[in-house]
Known about the structure:
The chain has a single domain (8-24, 36-344), classed as TolB, C-terminal domain (Neuraminidase, 6 Propeller), CATH 2.120.10. It is 2% helix and 43% strand. It is built from one helix and 26 strands. A five-stranded mixed β-sheet has the order 1-15-14-13-12, with no helix packed on it. A five-stranded mixed β-sheet has the order 2-19-18-17-16, with no helix packed on it.
Amino acid sequence: MRLxxxxxxxxxxxxxxxxxVLAFGHSQARSGTPAAAGRxxxxxxxxxxxxxxxxxxxxARYAFSTLDDARDTAFNQLRAxxxxxxxxxxFGSGAAGHPSRGFVLRPPYGPSRYQNIDVPGxxxxxxxxxxxxxxxxxxxxxxxxxxxxxxxxxxYLMGGRFTSVGFPTGDNASPPVNQLxxxxxxxxxVGFYADAxxxxxxxxxxxxxGRFSRVVVPGASSVTAAAINNFGAVAGYFTGAxxxxxxxxxxxxxxxxxxxxxxARLTRALGVNDSGEVVGAYQLGSGNGAVTRGFTWTRQxxxxxxxxxxxxxxxxxxxxxxxGDLVGCYVNRAGDTxxxxxxxxx
Length: 346
């Protein structure tokens, strides 16, 4: 299935999915408070040209912990963390005998604290986002292996009920690909669908109204909306005219920041909090020499690199809460993918 492991791919090829990117000049972004908007409009299109973001990524200081579900310690990803410290994630690579299964982990973290979150009747479920008011999002598949041809479908879980979500279009990939990747406290989710030509299209979905709207990056051939904060700002990544994948941070006002880690081949923004701190991963080098590293970015301070101490073969940061706590995953020397929590040194 083409995009079943959307971020596991980051580590494997930055590890699966798409890629990441370049370097740049100084941001002239204006400061200001974003409009408090949780509901999507007809289309999220920037009103200004993209503003490049500039920074040299120094190493950030965090305390790191590894959290793996004992049911499959070879593959775990932590995808989101809310302001209560609740974590959304999944275990299982999707390979034969290792189906992906979703979970929620609540503090105090421990082996007995993993709660299964699986769409009824699914063969595989990835839980990718959750908010502070009990709504969770992700996607599911009826196929037992990641490589098998078959659809994957977005879903949200609210009040104990699963509801499937698919962007309404007559130009779906075959089989269809729809994924929800994040949700804010206004119950607005973000994700993407793939079209018949294999291009991805980011969108917002208002759970209360069932309304969809597109997330557009000017000049992009492919867009993934990966996260949304409570002010309606969206983080994600896109492929541009030169077939290079870059991150973006799109404020509700329409101001767009293109995120390119200096010297990197690829950059993906994967999470964002209410203060506008964006997290993700970038790739240095290529082929067998490629290295994946996590990052944080803010308008005030630019990029900082986040590397797990045991992440000999790569680190990806996927989620961030308002306290600056990070979640993601890393690949250790044995080739296992482990769930990661990073708490800022305060």
